Amino acid sequence: MEKLQILHLVGSAVSDFYCELSRLYAQDCLQNTANPDLYEFHIAYVSPDLRWRFPKSLDNAEIAQTPSVSVPEAVAVLIQLQIDVMVPQMFCLPGMTQYRALFDLLKIPYVGNSAELMALAADKAKAKAVVSAAGVTVPAGKVLHRGDCLSVSRPSIIKPNHSDNSLGLSLVTETTDGDAAFATAFEYADEVLVEEFIELGREVRCGVIVQAGELVCLPLEEYAVNPETHPIRTYADKLKQSQDGSLDCAAKEKTKAWIVDPRDPVTQRVWAIAKQCHVALGCRHYSLFDFRIDPHGQPWFLEAGLYCSFAQKSVISMMAQAAGISLTDLFQNMVQMAVAGEAASFGDRLMIAQIDTKAETYS
User: Where is the ATP-grasp domain (predicted)?
Assistant: First the structure.
């Protein structure tokens, strides 16, 4: 059997921050999923100047020494390499949408969700509108723009409508400044989401994978939050940056996150809702959702994070490991589905088209 030619698409068209975040996870994936008998790995590295490089490794020195090429030249390289499947490793919005769409145009299959769905999920308000229409409980919210009346009830969550890792997120209470929260959020996006604050019981994340045509929910990951001292997760809970500028994953520290015992009563409730979300959004291959559990045990959908880099430290990888699925088996399963062209979409995509595309308010 010939080796599969697998391309890892790494970097960012937006910022050095996202470049380093992408490189951090992709390097982990390359080191822990390599199988010379099955795959030949290739790397395409995109930088914020929109130039492409094809380095032999993700060592910073190797990337810097590799000549850069334009987009048309990069497409020629991709065609010459005869790539069988692409693994998306870009975390910026263009990387999750436009660059995936490029591979659709080139008819090169890729692991994970489509460019269209990634664009939908990146808009937090629209994603909530879709799952809410399917009967999933979501916090009430509205989208505001610069120049709107920026009023807010207390307590509320204010955050950019398009942003990850809790960048620009604030909890506004009677003792905090709403104007400052809006100013912070607008630093990261032109649309700001104002959301009902859900009283804290717990906060969990649920991964769903497709196996043999069936949806399989993975053990939940729970995050360290406290209603009195730490009611929401912030950027510092997810990523940390060293003095030399390199990034690491604070969320993987055992004091900040842990796997929930599947016998915990909350698991079955969250699993059922996660499957609803997967179907409603029309996900393929895998999905990942964040839920707030209120003091009465009711799960509330917070957002969809529909990507996985297949690094050991990736959330879905860690959940799969807890379920007895090795990273190599998980990776192989996803690659095989992508190569076979199995969309494994369990939702009716017409539902997405029927949702008000502005999604200015939802409940």
Answer: 128-336
Question: Which amino acid appears at position 126 of this protein?
Answer: K
Q: Are 311 and 318 in contact (CB under 8 A)?
A: no
pLDDT 10s digits, 50-102: 999 999 999 999 999 999 999 999 999 999 999 999 999 999 999 999 999 99
- Which residues lie across from 39 on neighbouring strands? 4
pLDDT of residue 53: 98
Q: Is residue 363 over pLDDT 70?
A: no
> Which residues make Cβ contacts (< 8 Å) with residue 336, sequence separation at least 6?
none
What's the N-to-C CA distance of the chain in angstroms? 52
d(CA 127, CA 117): 9
Q: Are residues 285 and 215 in the same domain?
A: yes
Q: Are residues 188 and 259 in the same domain?
A: no
Stated pTM of the model:
0.86
Both 219 and 288 in one domain: the answer is yes
Q: How many other C-beta atoms are found inside a 10 Å radius of the C-beta of residue 292? A: 23
Report the C-alpha gap between 230 and 212 in whole angstroms.
40
Assigned token pair, 17: 């921050």
Q: What is the largest CA-CA distance in the chain?
A: 65
**Coil, strand or helix at 11:** strand
Q: Which pLDDT belongs to residue 12?
A: 98
249 assigned to some structural domain: yes
Q: Containing domain of residue 23, as a range?
A: 2-110
Taking each helix axis as running N to C, give the angle between helix 265-281 and helix 124-133, from 0 to 180 degrees, rounded to the nearest 10. 100
Indicate whether 183 and 210 sit together in one domain: no
Same domain, 229 and 278: yes
The predicted-structure confidence for 225-242, as pLDDT tens digits, reads as follows 867 676 776 655 555 555
Contacts of 2 (CB under 8 A, 6+ apart): none
DSSP state of 261: P
The number of angstroms, rounded, from the C-alpha of 24 to the middle of its chain's C-alpha atoms is 15
| Residue 82: exposure state from Cβ atoms within 10 A (0-12, 13-18, ≥19) | exposed
Cα distance between residue 154 and residue 171, in whole Å: 9
